[in-house]
Amino acid sequence: MVSNMEWARQLEEIYRNAPIRKTLNSDIWFDEELRAHFKINTIPDLFHALGDVHGGIIAALIDNAAWFTAAAQYPNKWIVTTEFHTYLLRPAKGSNLHSYGKLIYKGKTQAVAKAKVERDDGSLVAYGTATLVVTNIEVDIEKVKELIAKIKK
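The chain above was modelled as a monomer; its predicted structure follows.
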């Protein structure tokens, strides 16, 4: 079995090869405490009709940061989000965005994480929480890579 940090590096690779990364124009990294971080370089394709980042994009940042932070705690196990909440506080104002997660609870079958989204200047745009279930599905990193390659075709 791989260590949590090795698993986190594999999760980074999975995300970096997933089609959603290109759609969101984003990147992922884990810090030394296994908190997932995401950076979105804001592009007009992510804007709503009034010219700012769509709330659904911000919700995706909450979901990603919470999910990947929790997932890093369960090497080679698939986890699923059962619910997540997003609280939008202020507009992004076209700024690049950074999200990061923090694990609140780690159980055998359930995890709870929270996440924040900030502008480049550090001001808080949104925060949220997620409840996740740990499944019995073992993740085979090579099979995931094959699946992503098929999806990209």
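The longest strand covers residues 124-138.
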